[in-house]
Write a structure and sequence with these properties.
Blueprint: H1 2-30, H2 38-47, H3 57-80, H4 97-108, H5 118-121, H6 124-154, H7 164-189, E1 199-203, E2 209-213, H8 217-226, H9 247-271, H10 275-302, H11 326-339, H12 354-365, H13 376-396, E3 401-402, E4 405-406, H14 409-417, H15 421-435, H16 437-441, H17 447-462, H18 477-506, H19 523-557
Antiparallel strand pairs: 1-2, 3-4
Helix pairs in contact: 1-9, 2-7, 3-4, 3-6, 3-18, 4-18, 6-7, 6-8, 6-9, 6-18, 7-8, 8-9, 9-10, 9-11, 10-11, 10-12, 10-19, 11-12, 12-17, 12-19, 13-14, 13-19, 14-18, 15-17, 15-18, 17-18, 17-19
Amino acid sequence: MVQDFTQVLIFALLLAVISVPLGIYMAKVANGDYRFLDFLERPTLALSGVRNEPQRWTTYAYALIAFNGVGFLLLYLILCFQNYLPFNPLDLPGLSPDLAFNTAISFITNTNWQSYGGESTMSFSSQMAGLTTQNFVSASSGMAVALAVARGFAGRQTNDIGNFWVDMTRMIIYVLLPICIVLTLFFVWSGIPQTFTGSVDATTLEGAKQTIDLGPVASQIAIKQLGTNGGGFFNVNSAHPFENPTALTNLISMLAILAIPSAFCFTYGRMIGDKRQGRAIAFAMAILMVVSFSALFLSEHAGNPALHGLVNQVQGNMEGKEVRFGVVNSALWASITTAASNGSVNAMHDSLTPIAGMIAMINIQLGEVIYGGAGVGLTGMLLNVILTVFIAGLMVGRTPEYLGKKIEAREVKLAALTLLVMPVGVLVLSALAIATGQGQSAIANQGPHGLSELLYAYTSATGNNGSAFAGLSANVPFHNTFLGLAMVLGRYGYIIPILAIAGSLAAKKTTPASAGTFPTHGPIFVVLLIATILIVGALTFLPVLALGPIAEHVSLSQGQLF
């Protein structure tokens, strides 16, 4: 146990060391203070016909949606016709229309849900020109939104929240590309393949013949982790030894997943001119993360009660886990990947204990605001800040204010509107899946665990996470279509309202703080913020969780198996 906590402590310290300077750096990049890569930025914008002109929130949102729409179309065509493209050494066919639709939506929304096995479905052209490209631009799109929101919250009687094209380009050139180059070189040094060779034949110790798939893996792993994308080159994702071979690659990958979402708290504090606000949000995220990991780890460490007395449970629940990572690194990764909008896995979530699986699900159902995706995690947390400020204002009988600006009906209605995103995407679409024969046919397990598999899938899609309970065979037209719709709802159902709120706040006057102003940077506000997030999540999802993982846990404790 001491060794387990030492590993977790090392991870936490390294994350803290990385987050602050990275956050400051991103703020300076966003403000145009760093121009050392101007020789790349300037011609890129010039060739694209972009002028660095201020945009209203409506123009910013239109640019984002239009760009993502074109990206969807191009990726859809690449996937459907990959059999006609070069770099297809295994002669893989084009994807079916429904699978191509699901995959294209998945990657433009930064979800990276995979209804397919990577090495047996995607050609190298699809992996590189299609999926990896979208890993960069979907992550940078989310980061651009966070920068626009920060400007909107800090603005004073202005319509200017920045320029989408400039923000996205700078995030790619100054942040994502340089770090990914370093990560890729590290991963190659660690033994992760980076080759155009399709596969090699090997002879096992027993004398059997085995074909081992290869490819340009390392470069995709770097951006899938850093951009909180999560889509694996191989079917079993980061549990595969070619994606995550050692304890060191495991540690670096986990740090890469949370680096940008954590750093954005400090970017936000710098951009609004009040570092305390960024620190308050960082503390709220960290507290939720500690609670999440503790509950998940303790459940996994306790093991499966049905096996107590039959096997040695000292190591906890090792089902579905790699021995090289063990329970603590598997539990930590599961907490991180569901707290962030990443979705990569180094152990099978379908094999988690019921309570651990429920914790992973709850991380996503909260809106993935514990850290969330690159940029969009911060904006999701700011939506909860708006709601918390409104509730606090009601309790003290004063007009809600945030950063010296009055939070009025328009902002509260827009923030409240986002509360419908997860219930509609998860509960309504899951209910439709259960009500149809095709939706039910994809469920592998009976009883409450079967419900959990379906519930997790639509939770993951709506939360733009991408991880899954592997027992669900989602590659059928029904799930490919409806999971795709859930991803669109989960992405733009949050982005558009928060941009509208940013535009509204940017146009307002700032009033100086008075004795009656409720401080939004102290411990009381942090507690209220956490309570708001948890209460809203519990009221929304506790009933269905009682029918799934909670019922499974009770049944398992009583010796009832399904």
